[in-house]
Design goal:
Elements lengths: L2 E5 L5 H13 L5 E5 L3 E4 L2 E4 L2 E5 L3 E7 L8 H17 L5 E4 L2 E4 L3 E6 L16 E2 L4 H7 L8 H13 L1 H5 L13 H11 L5 H8 L5 E6 L5 H15 L5 E5 L4 H17 L8 E5 L12 H9 L6 H8 L4 H12 L7 E6 L7 H9 L1 E12 L12 H4 L14 E4 L7 H12 L21 H5 L2 E6 L6 E6 L14 H4 E6 L2 H17 L8 E5 L5 H4 L1 H9 L4 E3 L15 E5 H4 L4 E6 L12 H12 L2 E10 H16 L4 E4 L3 H12 L3 H22 L11 H12 L9
Parallel strand pairs: 1-2, 6-9, 9-10, 11-15, 11-16, 12-13, 12-14, 14-15, 19-24, 20-22, 20-23, 21-22, 23-24
Antiparallel strand pairs: 2-5, 3-4, 5-6, 7-8, 17-18, 18-25
């Protein structure tokens, strides 16, 4: 037995530290001790609870902390804290039971005053208003008893979820009604409700914000985005005067973040966020109104550095990574920078260059509270970001102590064991047929075998050593069983091989119709992902047309919607792979997966698209494609399924891993140039379709383009005829 200590912020540091030390040293106590939490809205304004002990043995104990020797006024403060917490919990009907004319809370709420500066508690105090110092605190706490009846664990978790705002923030925003208790829609609702409380690591990541740099690392589905939204809302509630920014690369996350933060903040305070002090803002940004602003754009304005948009950065700095080049140039040319923010929270940091994190650091006030969350393995074969000392030129260290600067979220709450293992097996190419160049079918692999443990696997046979056979499986503590027990195993992940794209489109449209009509899924529970970013608009057209014939609305994210909008009510989402990042759905359809089986170059990158698409699912996955390559992918999954989702393989040697990097990962400058041009054309076509670019703006280029295309057709372009 032990108590997890989660330290937020309050204005009573000495009493908070003394409370934490005593509780930590008492092995007979269990549960969680929150410092500076929760924040509760009342008709008189916000109530900032000094500390809260949540335990299945005691219920909830709210602490009135006293700095100094005078605890006077403790009765009023204890009553105030109890009234606020009870009012919050009574808003949940499932936490109240009627007894005669009384409506009683099912989970008890106690209060205590802790005044470590007093030599001894005042003698006149009775049990109704306990006051403790360091000598008798443990006795006061052990006097609080709660006998958990059958079902009481559920009620305790429900109450804790209400205080942590988890149940509020995880709801989809749409009302659900069911006629079948075992439909997919009902199962999805129960899945969302099952993730009722934050685990200890998530709670620490949400509340603990020390001065300096803090990393939050974890796999897709470990709750990073949820935690960042809760953290932003909590800091805004505790410190409304602070200037806080939440930033990201994927523009479709903007609306998602605003909803999550709003839901959490309103649930805590019964007030709306002050969006002047709490900004949800894109990483790059552009000139124009406030909604188009970005962190990099703000840095250029504040420092006097030249701002470059994407096109300008590409022309001036090359195609390899224009944003990195723009950020580096801005840092080199910047003058003195005013402090724009007290806290900056960065999501999906693996998609951003380290130079952008340095820009964030420069924009912060003296305490330099920079928090960045990232997927340790968004690019499967390597760690996705350098160490902080390397990013910040060895000037910045992670803070020490309980508010650790490095928090790893290793438990996956989105993907079931079969879904996540399928994503890893296909992404790494574990069951891919071998090739002569690398003497293995594996496409990419960790250089550090310990990474497998870090991401939640264990060796059930063999060792994770070069050249040795090994069998890996997910640990139950990192892949909870309730994520897969809701459905038959073979229903969680299915592969479909079709003879033509038309056949594929017809099947997907029919299945989506069944999902909505019979399975009681909402249209917004469903996403269709195309892995090739260049072909998405054309590739999804047939499925969308068939759905329209069936009376089912759909939208292509970022094209039919604004760039910052991803989800639409009563509409099935279609998207390319890049916009899918950071989002999640109950049912995921990956179409044209055959495009990810093989590639002339950068096969590791292509396989990563499979990983990203599959891990968008919090329920079910359907991987679809056409032809022989799709059948080969399906065969890889069949081998994995036959092994009960355990991965059997020989760990590649160092030489084999080096060969993989050459054959599957490393590309030449010319290849990078080609990939850069392809991505640019993809963005151009997308903007053209969305109406953000007018073709008339390019009339002066039309003759040159026509001439160039004619020379390419005649085979003359590239041989001196420009």
């Amino acid at each position: 037995m032990a108590v997890s200590i989660i330290s937020g912020t309050n204005d009573k540091p000495a009493a908070s530290q003394a409370l934490a030390e005593i509780v930590r040293g008492c092995q007979n106590l269990s549960g969680k001790l929150f410092i500076g939490f929760p924040v509760i809205g009342t008709y008189q304004g916000r109530r900032l609870i000094d500390a809260l002990w949540a335990s299945e043995d005691a219920g909830f104990v709210a602490f009135d902390l006293v700095e100094g020797k005078d605890p006077s006024g403790y009765r009023e403060r204890q009553d105030d804290f109890a009234a606020a917490i009870e009012s919050k919990l009574r808003s949940r009907p499932d936490l109240v039971r009627r007894s005669g004319r009384q409506r009683n809370l099912l989970v008890p709420v106690h209060t205590a005053t802790f005044a470590p500066g007093t030599l001894e508690p005042p003698s006149e105090l009775g049990a109704d208003y306990p006051v403790a110092n360091a000598d008798n605190l443990v006795q006061v706490l052990t006097d609080f008893q709660w006998t958990v009846e059958e079902g009481g664990k559920f009620e305790f978790d429900t109450a804790l979820s209400a205080l942590e705002n988890v149940s509020t923030i995880r709801r989809t925003g749409s009302d659900r009604s069911f006629e079948q208790l075992d439909s997919r829609g009902a199962k999805l609702k129960r899945l969302e409700d099952s993730v009722a409380t934050l685990d200890a690591r998530q709670a620490k990541a949400m509340l603990e914000t020390a001065a300096g740099v803090q990393r939050i690392r974890g796999l897709a589905g470990s709750g990073k985005t949820i935690v960042l939204a809760l953290k932003a809302a909590y800091l805004h509630a505790r410190h409304p005067e602070w200037r806080i920014a939440v930033t990201f690369q994927t523009r479709s996350l903007k609306g998602f973040f605003r909803r999550l933060i709003t839901d959490s903040f309103v649930s805590q305070t019964s007030e709306a966020p002050d969006w002047d002090n709490l900004r949800v803002i894109h990483a790059w940004g552009a000139r124009g109104d406030k909604e188009r602003d970005g962190i990099y754009h703000q840095f250029c304005r504040a420092s006097g550095a030249t701002y470059l948009d994407y096109g300008g950065a590409r022309r001036r700095l090359g195609l390899a990574n224009p944003f990195d080049g723009a950020c580096r140039l801005a840092l080199q040319k910047a003058g003195l920078v005013d402090d724009l923010y007290d806290v900056i929270l960065v999501d999906e940091a693996q998609d951003l260059p380290p130079s952008f994190l340095r820009i964030c650091y420069e924009l912060l006030a003296k305490d330099k509270r920079l928090v960045y969350a990232y997927d340790e393995l968004q690019n499967l074969g390597k760690r996705s970001l350098p160490a902080p000392a390397e990013i910040f030129d060895k000037k910045v260290q992670l803070p020490d102590g309980s508010a650790a600067g490095d928090i790893v979220l290793n438990r996956c709450y989105r993907n079931s064991r079969p879904v996540l293992t399928t994503a890893h097996a296909l992404g790494f190419g574990i069951y891919r047929k071998g090739d002569s160049a690398t003497q293995t079918g594996i496409v990419q692999m960790f250089d550090d075998p310990e990474m497998w443990h870090d991401v939640g696997y264990r060796a059930v046979s063999g060792g994770i050593r070069d050249g040795e056979p090994v069998v890996l499986e997910r640990r139950e503590d990192t892949s909870p069983r309730f994520l897969e027990d809701h459905s038959e195993l073979d229903d969680l992940v299915q592969f479909g091989t079709f003879n033509s794209e038309d056949e594929q489109a017809e099947w997907v449209a029919e299945q989506i119709e069944l999902n909505i009509r019979d399975d009681e899924l909402l249209p917004e529970d469903i996403v269709v992902i195309n892995p090739d970013p260049l072909s998405t608009a054309e590739a999804v057209g047939p499925v969308r047309a068939l759905l329209l014939d069936k009376g089912i609305q759909s939208h292509l994210a970022g094209v039919d919607t604004g760039a910052d909008v991803f989800y639409q009510p009563d509409s099935v989402t279609f998207t390319g792979i890049y916009r899918a990042k950071g989002n999640e759905f109950g049912m995921v359809y990956l179409i044209n997966a055959h495009d990810c089986y093989a590639a002339d170059r950068s096969l590791a990158q292509v396989r990563n698209r499979l990983f990203v698409a599959i891990t968008r699912s919090k329920g079910w996955v359907r991987v679809c494609g056409v032809g022989e390559d799709m059948q080969r992918l399906a065969d890889e999954h069949s081998e994995l399924r036959g092994a009960d989702y355990k991965m059997h393989f020989v760990y590649p040697t160092e030489q084999q891993r080096n060969n993989m990097r050459i054959v599957h990962r490393e590309v030449s400058d010319a290849d990078r140039l080609v990939e850069g041009h392809k991505n640019n054309f993809s963005s151009f076509f997308e903007d053209m379709q969305a109406g953000r670019v007018d073709p008339e703006d390019f009339t002066d280029l039309k003759p040159k383009l026509q001439k160039m295309l004619s020379t390419v057709r005649d085979g003359r372009y590239g041989r001196g005829d420009r």
